[in-house]
Automatic annotation (TrEMBL):
Its EC number is 2.7.1.11. It is found in: Cytoplasm. One of its GO terms (cellular component) is membrane. This is ATP-dependent 6-phosphofructokinase. Catalyzes the phosphorylation of D-fructose 6-phosphate to fructose 1,6-bisphosphate by ATP, the first committing step of glycolysis. Its cofactor is Mg(2+). CDD domains: Eukaryotic_PFK. Keywords: Acetylation, Allosteric enzyme, ATP-binding, Cytoplasm, Glycolysis, Glycoprotein, Kinase, Magnesium, Metal-binding, Nucleotide-binding, Phosphoprotein, Transferase. The keyword Cytoplasm applies.
């Protein structure tokens, strides 16, 4: 088998993964430089590559093999020349990374392939044997587009990194508001797709957003100015308006950032500035999410090529929720074109629906959280809901609290904030919280409400008193493993205390990502980015020096998620975790593997170790072992990352995941309150297992699961779930680090058709 790269817009991680997985399955792998132009020109543009060719490219933005628009490839003559160049090298498998234009071109090339070969044979350029031998061309696509404008995939490669750039700018702008009262109009990329604008507006709590798929209604100028004035009257020092570059009004006329600025200045007289982000969004180092996504997709692409037959359609590999899927390329392209058609014809609601469930849910959540209805229009339920944080701080907790407060108020409840977790609850540190109190919380790290690890068991009576005193009818707990244990304890205490017979829901938030019932926890992505950034810097610190290996210790308790995924994102050589026991022989094998590696052109090694992976093989022990065994070949350094993994501003993923999951949890509370309210007694009474739930991300969906049912899935001694999805990615890390290991293909994507997700399904993309 031979693999090739076409046009790349995005990620070197995908290039690296395809090359290494291709070599792992004993294929010859070729780079085609400068996209289709290189394929047409041939010569030095098509080069066989080795393992070392893709070393140290993981953290580099853009693409090492170049990309170019190519007019000749649009002609049959150009494609004929490209086919000749491929056949000469025996290439019959193409892995194309690009947008819908690149992928459509690849599909046309595949359809014409046999005709092109026959024409080449007629012209005497190739013989009949070659026509027979190379009769079929297989194509697999990966979507690289920062706009996330390709239907059928939750997240395209490069989107998360672009969001990181936008949010960095928004956070920087927010600090200027401490000294000046200003309105900022931010223009972000997205000529035909408003994804970046919408998600960044959701992530920073923007006052207004303009996107092509959902133009504002007639008279939007008045509505926007009223909204900005109200916010300023509430002592909000900063207004942020986000405009997608392709934003339009309902008559398909463009809405530009300058037009918005002039409107604000003329109508309100506010000091207003425009910031156009432009190509900043394309630059910088890729985020941890993008590196892992691209690595997973790259490996999946090679597997898809291996399994391809002349009858299987050209496919794209993509992500649905947390699940790798394969979709027919032309079905995706067709649906992407349908969106544009719907927008051109003014069918905007249809355009939003065609973008998929994730986009639609982002839009609905934004509308719910950004515009406060007048008190007279809000329903009045007379229910009181308490919100508290439990466990260690995790970035994104504040975004979750903000969403809970605002959705709760929209549903007509009174929301009470509990300070300092269950301990604060017992001491009566509880107060009503309003819409304006949580303004600007999305970008704040840590926990503004305060959080403690204390469990409720020793305070049950006092907490019951507080619930009775404040007439609390439902509880929302945002936290980690302690929050899960806390809900189990409260639920067990229902027999003794009627006050706990109310709906309770938990939203998982912990850097360790060790909560049963959820693939992801709020805060884990931010911690992963911290680890990845630090590993990049550490690796760079050794450039130009002699050969060096770094041993890095990560957090996570007994859960190896951060160590394993950090290793995958940073391109580490090994990751030691508790879930996969290791002995001295494996340590020895790792040292020997690194010694061999250092004999090549590669000069640096990276080893991650989870803090509790083994009580005897400590970080110091591993450091000393590597130092001794590597003498004369490499030297060692060690780093313990510590609490820097819990700090920092939340990543775009954590802000949005926290916002969306928390909003959904509050809507569940409203539903349960209605179901469990007893008119006769005039109170809420809920004592069934399904009234104490954890809301978690499971593969493709957000699912409410009774905590009582999760007990059987939990290892309480080590505070981890008994089964963890990310362990299936472990062989992937080893393969990309050149270890011989078996890769379980049972979890690889099966070819599916592009269909709208059912109404209740909600994907995990942000």
């Amino acid at each position: 088998m031979n693999c090739q790269f076409g046009k790349i817009k995005g990620m070197n991680a995908a290039v690296r993964a395809v090359v290494r997985m291709g070599i792992y399955v004993n294929a010859k792998v070729y780079f085609i430089y400068e996209g289709y132009q290189g394929m047409v020109d041939g010569g030095d543009n098509i080069v066989e590559v080795s393992w070392e060719s893709v070393s140290s490219i993981l953290q580099v933005g853009g693409t090492v093999i170049g990309s170019a628009r190519c007019k000749p490839f649009r002609t049959r003559e150009g494609r004929l020349q490209a086919a000749f160049n491929l056949v000469q090298r025996g290439i019959t498998n193409l892995c194309v990374i690009g947008g819908d234009g690149s992928l459509t071109g690849a599909n046309l090339f595949r359809e014409e392939w046999s005709g092109l070969l026959e024409e080449l044979a007629q012209k005497g350029k190739i013989d009949a044997e070659a026509v027979k031998k190379y009769a079929y061309l297989n194509i697999v696509g990966m979507v690289g587009s920062i706009d996330n404008d390709f239907c059928g995939t939750d997240m395209t490669i490069g989107t998360d990194s672009a969001l990181h750039r936008i949010i960095e700018v928004v956070d920087a702008i927010m600090t200027t508001a401490q000294s000046h009262q200003r309105t900022f109009v931010l223009e972000v990329m997205g000529r035909h797709c408003g994804y970046l604008a919408l998600v960044s507006a959701l992530a920073c709590g923007a006052d207004w957003v303009f996107i092509p798929e959902y133009p504002p209604e007639e008279g939007w100028e008045d509505s926007m100015c009223v909204k900005l004035s109200e916010n300023r009257a509430r002592k909000k020092r900063l207004n942020i308006i986000i405009v997608a570059e392709g934003a339009i009004d309902c008559h398909n006329k463009p809405i530009t950032s300058e037009k918005v600025k002039d409107l604000v200045v003329q109508r309100l007289g506010f000091d207003t500035r425009v910031t156009i982000l432009g190509h900043v969004q394309r630059g910088g180092t890729p985020s941890a999410f993008d590196r892992i996504l691209a690595s997973r997709m790259g490996v999946e692409a090679v597997l898809a090529l291996l399994e391809a037959t002349p009858d299987t359609p050209a496919c794209v590999v993509s992500l649905s929720g947390n699940q790798a899927v394969r979709l027919p390329l032309m079905e995706c392209v067709q649906m992407t074109q349908e969106v544009q058609k719907a927008m051109d014809e003014g069918r905007f609601l249809e355009a939003v629906r065609l973008r998929g469930r994730s986009f639609e849910n982002n839009l609905n959540t934004y509308k719910l959280l950004s515009h406060k209805k007048p008190d007279a229009e809000l329903p009045k339920t007379n229910f009181n809901v308490a919100v508290l944080n439990v466990g260690a701080p995790a970035a994104g907790m504040n975004a979750a609290v903000r969403a809970a407060v605002r959705v709760g108020m929209t549903e007509g409840h009174k929301i009470f904030a509990v300070i300092d977790g269950f301990e604060g609850f017992a001491r009566g540190k509880i107060k009503e919280i309003s819409w304006g109190d949580v303004g600007g919380w999305t970008g704040q790290g840590g926990s503004i409400l305060g959080t403690k690890r204390t469990l409720p068991a020793k305070y049950l009576e006092k907490i019951a008193d507080q619930m009775r005193t404040n007439n609390i009818n439902a509880l929302m707990v945002i936290g980690g493993f302690e929050a899960y244990l806390g809900l189990l304890e409260l639920s067990a205490a229902r027999e003794k205390y009627d006050e706990f017979c109310v709906p309770m829901v938990m939203v998982p938030a912990t850097v360790s990502n060790n909560v049963p019932g959820s693939d992801f926890s709020i805060g884990a992505d931010t911690a992963l980015n911290t680890i990845t950034d630090t590993c990049d810097r550490i690796k760079q610190s050794a450039s130009g020096t002699k050969r060096r290996v770094f041993i890095i210790e990560t957090m996570g308790g007994y859960c190896g998620y951060l160590a394993n995924m950090g290793a995958l994102a940073a391109g580490a050589d090994a990751a030691y975790i508790f879930e996969e026991q290791f002995d001295i022989r494996e340590l020895q094998a790792n040292v020997e593997h690194l010694t061999e590696k250092m004999k090549t052109s590669i000069q640096r090694g990276l080893v991650l170790r989870n803090e509790n992976c083994n009580e005897n093989y400590t970080t110091d022990f591993i450091y000393q072992l590597y130092s001794e065994e590597g003498k004369g070949v490499f030297d060692c350094r060690k780093n313990v990352l510590g609490h820097m993994q819990q700090g920092g501003a939340p990543s775009p993923f954590d802000r949005n995941f926290g916002t969306k999951i928390s909003a959904k949890a509050m809507q569940w509370i409203s539903k349960k309150l209605k179901e469990t309210y007893r008119k006769g007694a005039g109170k809420v009474f809920a004592n069934t297992d399904d009234s104490v739930c954890l809301l978690g991300m499971r593969r493709r969906n957000l699912v409410f699961q009774p905590v009582a049912e999760l007990k059987s899935e939990t290892d309480f001694v080590h505070r981890i779930p008994k089964e963890q999805w990310w362990l299936k990615l472990r062989p992937l890390m080893k393969i990309l680090a050149k270890y011989k290991t078996s890769y379980d293909v049972s979890d690889s994507g099966q070819l599916e058709h592009v269909a709208m997700l059912p109404k209740e399904a909600e994907t995990g993309a942000i």
